[in-house]
Design goal:
The strands form three sheets. Strands 3-5-6-7-8-9-10-11 form an eight-stranded parallel β-sheet. The chain has a two-stranded antiparallel ribbon with strand order 1-2. The protein has a two-stranded parallel sheet with strand order 4-12. The chain has helices at about 15, 65-80, 100-110, 130, 135-150, 170-190, 200-210, 230-240, 255-270, 300-315, 320-335; strands at about 30, 35, 40-45, 50, 85-90, 115-120, 160-165, 190-195, 220, 240-245, 275, 280-285. It starts with 12 loop residues before the first helix and ends with a helix. The radius of gyration is 19 Å and the shape is globular. It has one domain: TIM Barrel (Alpha-Beta Barrel). It contains eleven helices and twelve strands.
């Protein structure tokens, strides 16, 4: 444990009684069953089907027709298949309306491989009070159960672990949940997908995970594309983790032209094998009053219709793009 977080406590009984699986090759758990990494295919690594921030359940205006959500999602995923996408990772945190039954229904109807995650969000917008009070080993136990047994009695197993921070300085509460994610990773072998606020705190977050014994190539440091600093991208990659260019299309955080320049810079610098592309799009956000970004029926297609042409215009090839979308997700899960 990093020295500045002394209150988290030592490894407990849950961690002690299970073998360390960090280096084991484990199947990828999708919401419709296990697959091997070779079956993953072209993959979007950070998208969402349904999100409801904590408290939406008390707002009559935010009540959601899940059948309508499923129909919209199936339509959008079918559009994705035309771009060769076979797999879709939805790292929705537990407390943000994660609904694995809905995910499984959508996966079956759309014939898409969907991976869900265990793990909570960051302190500013998540981490319910009940869980904030828990000891780290109790959180680890919950994560391991969702990975190895199933979520909410469904038998649907999480295929990755989500963790999040909201600032450069990781708060003591966030540190407890990051530590739980690291220990659950060591017990199960599934990788970690993170959230940063537009890259803020990415290096601190990465350093924490590595100090807790997570191999760098088992971490995807999320939303780094919200930062235009090439030194940050390069440092994350040099340390061995995947760099999340996973909010493509969100102009309020960064113009796509800047993101494209950054992807090219990393590729030219020899780090194509550390670039992950995705969009963080949401098919339906509970209570939303405006439609999500994207063309009608193609909520998740902006990457293919608009961003990839920008990369090609800058000299990248289809072989480079295949590394980002095919090879890197496969290697991330395979370890």
């Amino acid at each position: 444990m990093p020295a500045q977080y002394p209150g988290i406590g030592p490894v407990g009984a849950v961690t002690a009684r299970l073998a360390d699986k960090r280096e084991m090759r484990v199947p990828i758990q999708t919401v419709t069953g296990a697959i091997e990494p070779e079956e993953l295919g072209r993959t979007l690594m950070h998208e969402h089907l349904f999100v409801a921030f904590h408290g939406a359940e008390f707002d009559p205006a935010a009540q959601t027709d899940k059948a309508w959500v499923a129909a919209q999602a199936v339509r959008s995923l079918n559009a994705l298949k035309a771009h060769g996408v076979r797999s879709f990772v939805d790292p929705c945190p537990i407390e943000l309306g994660r609904d694995v039954r809905l995910m499984a229904e959508i996966a079956e109807r759309a014939e898409m491989q969907i991976v869900c995650t265990t793990g909570f969000y960051h302190e500013a917008a998540g981490l319910p009070g009940h869980w904030r009070r828990m000891e780290v080993e109790r959180i680890v136990e919950h994560y391991v159960r969702e990975i190895e047994t199933g979520i909410d009695g469904t038998g649907i197993r999480a295929g990755a672990i989500k963790c999040a921070t909201s600032a450069a300085n990781i708060s003591p509460v966030e540190a407890k949940f990051l530590a739980a994610a690291c220990r659950a990773h060591r017990l199960t072998g599934v990788p970690i997908i993170t959230h940063t606020e537009n890259g803020i705190g990415a290096l601190e977050q990465q350093a924490f995970l590595l100090a807790e014994g997570v191999a760098p190539h088992r971490c995807l440091i999320g939303h780094c594309c919200g930062c235009a600093d090439p030194a940050l991208h390069r440092t994350v990659a040099e340390r061995g983790s995947y760099v999340g260019f996973d909010r493509i299309g969100y102009a309020q955080f960064q113009p796509d032209a800047v993101r494209a320049d950054s992807v090219v810079a990393l590729t030219r610098g020899g780090f194509a094998d550390r670039v992950i592309l995705s969009q963080d799009r949401v098919c339906h956000l509970a209570g939303r009053t405006t439609p999500p970004p994207g063309r009608d029926g193609e909520i998740y297609s902006h990457l293919f219709t608009d961003f990839l042409p920008m990369l090609r215009d800058r000299g990248l090839t289809d072989a480079d793009i295949a590394v980002f979308l095919d090879a890197n997700p496969r290697r991330f899960f395979a370890g």
